[in-house]
Each structure stands twice: as C-alpha cells, then as structure tokens.
Amino acid sequence: MKSLHVALIAIAFGLLTSCNTESQPETAAAVPETETEQGAGQSAVSDDQSQQNVVQVAAGSKDHTTLVAAVKAAGLVDALTNAGPFTVFAPTNAAFDKLPAGTVDGLLKPESRKDLRNILQYHVYVGVIPVERFDNDMTLGQVNGGRVKLGLEGDQPTVNGVKILASIPTSNGIIHVIDQVLLPE
C-alpha cells in the first residue's frame, strides 16, 4: 500500500513539473487589458450573425436617434442588450419633437439622469407582448413600476391610447414603434 502512495505521488509530481508554463502568456493576452474592455457589458459583444437585440435595432433606425441617445445618457444600453425578453414602446424622433421645447435637452443632462431613466423604463415591459395579444383594458407593469394600458381602436393596437405604428421582433424581445413619448404619472 505504501508503494502505491509513493507511486501516485511520483506521478503527480511528474505531471506538475512537466506542465509548460510558457503557454500561459498567450492565455493572459486574450484577457482585455483596458478598463473600458473589462467594464463593458453585454452591449460590447460583437455578433454579426445573430438577430439583433432591441438596442441594435433602434440604433440602426434613423427615426430613433433621440431614443438611442437617451438610452445611452440614462446608462440603460447594457440592461436592454441582455437576454430579456423585453417589450419596448419606442418613440420616434418626431415623438420627442412633440415635447415642450428644451425638454429633451434637459433630460439628457447628467443631473436629470434619474428622471430620464424613469421615463425610459416606463417604455419597457419585461416579457414579450406581440400586438396579436393586445386586448382592451389589458394593463402591463412597466420596469419603472408604473402601468400602461393596452387596447385596440378597431384593429389598431394602442398603448395608453397611442397607436402602435409598427412592430419589430428582435433577439431579446419586440419593439413597438409609437409616435408619442409615454409619460409616467
């Protein structure tokens, strides 16, 4: 039995001393070196093959540049690039233009980040609700804790009485394009 223990120790020692430590720098080189790369979240993952997530779809739309700027200013990019699933009611640039003059500029300031996040989170539901599931008097609890009312005006789906202009499926949910900014109570 003692010879078996000695043999196992000898084998283990041999394996440990025969490991090539010169390959370790290659592995270490694959680890991001900059703070930006280390701190980057899901939004930093590059994937040109898969279906785009809600942020990538919005970023690719010329009609949603204000929304994308607001999502960035609010620090919500990584949250919205995660797996979700999300239903996002996405106001167009024209919707933001309907707000009183100076409102958007004021919300994009760092000192207004809390208010901006509240408004943007009022546009997000955790789960996927396609327009085919909209029903009169249906309500959803939004990320900010508020509620929105879904409905149908004839065959036209609405959220808080605002018409859904288009719906776009994404890898992590669905975007419903709207032409008004939803404001929490």
General description of the model:
The protein contains 9 helices and 7 strands. With 185 residues, the protein is an alpha+beta fold. The protein has one domain (2-178): FAS1 domain (Roll), CATH 2.30.180. A 7-stranded mixed beta sheet has the order 2-1-7-6-5-4-3. The model is unreliable at 1-38 (pLDDT under 50).
Summarize this entry quickly:
The protein is of the alpha+beta class. It has helices at 2-18, 24-29, 35-39, 54-59, 65-73, 77-81, 93-97, 103-107, 113-121; strands spanning 86-91, 124-126, 138-141, 147-153, 156-159, 162-170, 173-178.
In angstroms, what is the radius of gyration? 25 Å
Top CATH class: Mainly Beta
How many H/I helical runs? 9
Q: For the record, give the distance between the C-alpha atoms at the N and C termini, rounded to a whole number.
A: 78 Å
According to CATH, what is the topology?
FAS1 domain
Strand order of the largest sheet: 2-1-7-6-5-4-3
Write down the secondary-structure element order: HHHHHHEHHHEEEEEE
User: Which spans of ≥5 residues are poorly predicted at pLDDT below 50?
Assistant: 1-38
Question: What is the SS-derived class?
Answer: alpha+beta
In terms of DSSP E residues, the strand content is: 15-25%
Tell how many strands the DSSP assignment holds. 7
CATH H level, superfamily name: FAS1 domain
Kindly state the mean pLDDT as a whole number? 80
Protein name: Putative surface protein with fasciclin (FAS1) repeats
Domain FAS1: 51-182
Organism: Pontibacter virosus
Keywords: Signal
